[in-house]
Design goal:
Elements: H1 7-14, E1 16-19, E2 29-33, E3 39-43, E4 45-51, H2 56-69, E5 73-78, H3 82-90, E6 96-99, H4 105-113, E7 118-127, E8 129-132, E9 141-143, H5 144-151, H6 160-163, E10 173-177, H7 182-192, E11 202-204, H8 207-215, E12 220-224, H9 226-231, E13 237-238, E14 240-242, E15 247-248, E16 263-271, H10 272-277, H11 279-299, E17 302-303, H12 306-319
Parallel strand pairs: 4-5, 4-6, 9-14, 10-11, 10-12
Antiparallel strand pairs: 1-5, 2-3, 6-16, 7-16, 7-17, 8-12, 8-13, 14-15
Helix pairs in contact: 2-11, 11-12
């Protein structure tokens, strides 16, 4: 599996990674010869992306590959969370907005108010993975109801024995993505069903902080995108989820299938105007769609059916007519 090169350090220090080289915001184009002998347009300019930390590894990998094809296009990929990314997209500050949940109605309204038309492009499947410390030798699976009982605030300190009497009477430490995160929103929707989360949960927009929290406390529990579990599986223990048909572990085979209700599609949203006006944005977006499945698999997610990527490309083609 592809490693997230420098991500743990760079993301925590800066919250953003600029990938590729060159400068300038205007698009220029000249003919160049690719490594395959084909003649391709050489582009320059900027592509500005922000949003989901879950989608970030996919787009980081895409951007690294794109830099070998179009080295003079500067692509910056931020990770301010799905909600934070949409705020920038609404303000017209970005060309693409990565999201680990669909755009909300209120975000659509703000985009419409600002005259920003957009296109939703599904990229991959992810399975939100619930994890505990490897020293935890009693939790092997949780029902959806138990997961809900764990995370919903009841005004009291939660003990493992509150969930199952035979479990230790020890305080649970909670680690969750921050409120700007689409992963937080999705978990809130399908598990908490909009009830308040435990007040003492440690929230962070950086999944690496959550990984560190869970690995550092034997009574910890957390959740985040599957790729971050896969990258740290030697330090974490995943928890199978029972949605009524028996426990199901998040794996390449179950995510997008039987791993419910924590399987989901992740997306990028592109500004229609940016695609129409900036050739480098159109070119990068096309490259991202063509390579999303392969890159998703490399960083630990699950590719969509080829037909879905074909639909994405058809949507993009309509924007560039």
């Amino acid at each position: 599996m592809k490693k997230f090169k420098g991500f743990a350090i760079t993301a925590m220090l800066t919250g953003v990674l600029a990938v590729a080289t060159a400068c300038g915001s205007d698009t220029t184009k000249e003919k160049s010869t690719s490594g395959t002998g084909d003649t391709a347009a050489k582009l320059s300019g900027e592509v500005i992306i922000d949003g989901s930390s879950t989608v970030y590894p996919i787009m980081e990998a895409v951007t690294e590959e794109y830099g070998t094809v179009q080295p003079d296009v500067r692509v910056s990929v931020g990770l301010s969370g799905t909600g934070g990314g949409f705020k920038k997209f609404i303000a017209g500050e970005t060309d693409l907005s990565n999201a680990s949940r669909p755009v909300k109605d209120e975000e659509k309204a703000e985009l419409d108010k600002n005259g920003i038309e957009f296109t939703e492009l599904p990229l991959a499947y992810d399975g939100i993975t619930v994890v505990v410390n490897p020293q935890n030798d009693f939790v092997d699976h949780l029902t959806v109801d138990e997961l809900k009982a764990l995370w919903i605030d009841n005004g009291k300190t939660k003990m493992w024995s509150d969930i199952r009497p035979e479990w230790p009477k020890e305080e649970i430490k909670f680690y969750s993505p921050g409120t700007d995160s689409g992963t937080h929103d999705y978990f809130n929707e399908v598990i908490l069903q909009d009830a308040p989360m435990v007040a003492n949960a440690t929230l962070s927009g950086d999944p690496n902080i959550l990984v560190q929290g869970v690995t550092g406390d034997k009574n910890a529990i957390g959740y985040f995108g599957y790729a971050y579990y896969a990258e740290n599986k030697d330090k974490l223990k995943d928890v199978s989820i029972d949605n009524g048909n028996g426990p199901v572990e998040p794996t390449h085979e179950t995510i997008g299938g039987d791993y419910k209700p924590l399987s989901r599609t992740v997306y990028t949203y592109v500004s229609n105007k940016a695609v129409a006006d900036k050739e480098q944005v159109a070119d990068y977006t096309k490259f991202a769609i063509e390579n999303a499945g392969k890159m998703a698999e490399e960083v630990g997610y699950i590719s969509l059916p080829e037909a879905d990527y074909k639909k994405d490309l058809e949507k993009l083609a309509e924007l560039t007519k």
